[in-house]
Each structure stands twice: as structure tokens, then as C-alpha cells.
Amino acid sequence: MGQQPNVLTPEKSPQHRLGYMIRELRAVRRMSMRALATKTFVSHSTVQRWESGERPPKDLAEVKLIDKQLDAGGLLVELWRDIGHTSSAPGHVSVSTPHVSEAAIGLVTATSQQAASDHEGIFVPARLRDGSVVFVALDRRAMLRGGLGIGAAAALGVGTPAAADSAVQGLARPARSAAAYSDTPVEHLQRARRLLIDNDNLLGPRHAITAALEYIETIKDLRRDSKGVDRHALMELQTQYAEFTSWLYQDLGDFDNAQFWLDRAFQWSHTVGDGDLTSYVMARKAQLAGETRDLVDVVDLAEAAQRMARPRSRLAAVARTYESYGHALRGESTDSERAIDDVRNSLDRVSADPTPWGVWLNEQYIEVHRAQGLEVLGKHAEAAEIFTSAIKSLPDSYHRDRGVYLARAAVAHSGAGSPEQAAAVGLQALTVARDTGSGRIIRELARLDKSLIPWQRQPEVADFRTQFDAVLAHEA
């Protein structure tokens, strides 16, 4: 009997996550460990060490070769880079478990992967002694003992776990019966996902994330006893839930777990064999890279998504939109404007595309991303005007998105030298952040808070900075 592979916990560390993904992609490609070793010019034992998490590939050239052989689309390269980034991140202090001081909110530097796997962990924005704002993992029970203010507790979603309750996950899960549903399980869970998506934009990620994670486990249970078309449909739905879970973590401000669930969605989409879904997930990876301001990968990921998409399709246009922002981040104004113009000119053509992905691509969405690019290129006044116009035309149910646009408009107003207007719009965005717990809004408001320092004695600016500070945890 062959040796059983080590059980990996991909949430444990970036190195284990890389090993897990190499093994899973190799299994999806139906490639033996020895075949991968031959194709990558290494020994069988070296591949074993990669997959066990014992040792990662030694350099970029090696991991690029592995990525190519497994047709991973750059995924393994990203995961490999995360290993070095995590181990060398400046300013981190080693701690064994997340904790909070009894006297005050204590800053901890546990990774967000810990927070997501521990039902006592919560991912929150915190003010450091130097005035900067970062997102950290805090222990929920100690947080409550420390006496976090009511306003901060409401904004940060204390009492609402950021991941499925591990105590529940640790219990034996009862079997699921497909006959229990009035329609098919797939139809039931598709409706649930649609409701969660609507709920997310109205109420924010903290209310939906636990349910999304629980539904992924439910789908896994149902897959055990399903066959053929039903099993395939459940796997496709599981992939869709993984992508949505990634989005929830992204909006929460937990980019590590957002990346983790996008990686799972990318892997599972290959299992399903849905080219559009795989292209969409790759485009989302480009979007996430843009949100983290990754100057290296954002354009490359967007271009990869366009190569994977059907030519002249809506998904190709979606990826081109994210490419435009990537060029702006790099200071490539001409390339950014050319890309966004290409997307705008493609709207009529792609409107009839039957794919269900990227249906929100419209002129307003394109203008918002154009404004985002203009803001990072230093064209603040023009960006603020576009954001303001986009906010007016948003549907009422897009509460969280309104908050994101308000926060970005406030940053643009500040950059344009209008501190009073920036502070007023920032306070509106802060209200939405409190309602939804959106980390994306908080991140933009942290940028605003810093940019307003030169005008901090103005009453309107001082009011915004005081109210913003009240929703933050603070370093002990």
C-alpha cells in the first residue's frame, strides 16, 4: 500500500498553503508525483517535500516551472511570494496566540489566517502609537473584557464571528438528505447565495460570512451522496460560494483569507471545467491585487484573465478594467486611459454575452474604476467629480458600495485641497462603515485621516478625525 500523504492545514502558513495547492492541482491534472518531478527536473523526494509543506521551491524560476507544468496561471508564484513576504514583514512581534490587554485594547500581530480559523478571533482596524492604522487579529473575549467602546464594537462587529464557529465545526455533522428540500438542493442553495449577495451589499460582510462558510460545508456533505450531473452542479456551486466567501473577506479587510478562498475557487473551477468561471476567478485575483496595491502582479493577473477569457467577451472586458487600474498604480497614465476606453467602447458588444459573470459591468462601473485610476494618478478633482456622480445613481440597496465610493470621493476631495468637503463626505462614509463593518471603507478612511493632518485644527476635520478614531482599537 502506498504511503498516505501528510494532512496539510493550508490556513496554518503560506508554506503549507503552497504545498496543499501543488498537491491539489497535481491531482486535478491527473499527474503523478514522479511525472511532476520529471517535468520540473527535480527528484521525487523534492516534490514530496514541496507537497508536505516541509520545504518550498528554492527560487522564482523553479516555482514558475512548476506553475507552468500544472497550468496554475500564476497562482503558485503568488503563493510562493507570500512565503517570503510573511516571514520578513517588518514591524511584527512574535506572539503565540492573539490576545488583548486587560486594561486596554492590545495590538497583536497574529496572522489573519489564525483569526479565520479560530472562532475567538476577530479581524479589526487598530491605531498604532505612531498614528497609522492597520488591521490586526484580536481575541474576542479579551476584547470584551477590555471594555471596547459601544461605537467601536458596533463598527467592528463584535459578537459576530468572522468565520464559521470552530466549536460547531469540531462536532460530528449530521447527514444531509436531498429529499428534505422542496426543490433540488442546488436550486435551494443558489437562492440562498443570491440572498446572501443582496444582504452583503445592504448590511455588510460580517452578517453573511458565517453563513457562506456553513453553506460550503453543507454542499460538501451533499456531494458525498450525489452522482453524475447533480454532483457536478454541487461542485460548481461550491466554487461559486468560495469566490463569494473570498469577496466577503476582501470587504472585511482580511486580504490573506480573501486570497485563500480565491485560490480554493480557482482550484475548484478547474475541477468543474467551467472556463468562464475560471476566467472570472482569475479576474477577481487581479482585482484583489489592485486592492492591495500590488504593483508587480495586478497587470499580469489581469492580462492572464484576458487570455483565459473568450475573445471579445464580457469577462475579457472585466479583466481589462482591472488592468486599467493596475497601470494607474504604476503611474502609466496613457496605458490606463487606453484600457478603460477599450472597455467603454466594448459595452454594446458584450451586453449580449450570455455568461452570468460580470453582469454588473456597465458605464457607471467603468466610470468608478476610471475615477479610481485618476485619483492614484493625482487627478484628484476630476476623480472626486466622477465619484460624486456615481454615488447619485447608485440603487438604494447598494449601501456598502455607496460607503466605498463616499470614502474614495473624500480622499479625492482631500487631494484636491478641499479639506472641509473631504471631512463631511468622510463622515457619511464612516456611518456606512459602522453599519456594515466594511474594512474596505475603513482602509480608505485611514488614508483620508492621514491626508487631513495638515488641516487637523479645522473644526470639521477635527470632528471627522475624532469620530474615526472612536471606531478603532488602539495599541496598548
**Secondary-structure element series:** HHHHHHEEHHHHHHHHHHHHHHHHHE
Query: Average pLDDT, to the nearest integer?
Result: 81
Gap between N and C termini? 55 Å
SS strand fraction = under 5%
Regarding quaternary structure, how should these chains be classified?
A: single chain
Individual helix count = 23
- Major beta sheet, strand line-up: 2-1-3
Helical percentage: 55-70%
Given as residue ranges, the uncertain stretches (5+ residues, pLDDT < 50) are: 85-121, 140-172
Measured on Cα atoms, how large is the radius of gyration?
23 Å
C-alpha geometry: globular
**Strand pairing plus helix content: what structural class?**
mainly alpha
**Number of DSSP strand runs:** 3
Instruction: Tell me the major beta sheet.
Output: 3 strands, mixed
Overall description:
With 476 residues, this protein is mostly helical. Among the domains are: 14-88, 434 Repressor (Amino-terminal Domain), CATH 1.10.260.40; 112-169, no CATH class; 387-476, no CATH class. 64% of the residues lie in helices and 3% in strands. It has helices at residues 14-28, 33-39, 44-52, 60-69, 75-88, 112-117, 140-145, 150-156, 166-169, 185-203, 209-224, 228-252, 255-272, 275-291, 298-308, 314-329, 333-350, 363-376, 380-392, 399-415, 419-436, 439-451, 459-470; strands at residues 121-127, 133-139, 473-474. It has a three-stranded mixed sheet. Helix 14 runs antiparallel to helix 15, helix 14 packs parallel to helix 16 and helix 18 runs antiparallel to helix 19 (380-392). The longest helix has 25 residues, at 228-252. The protein is globular.
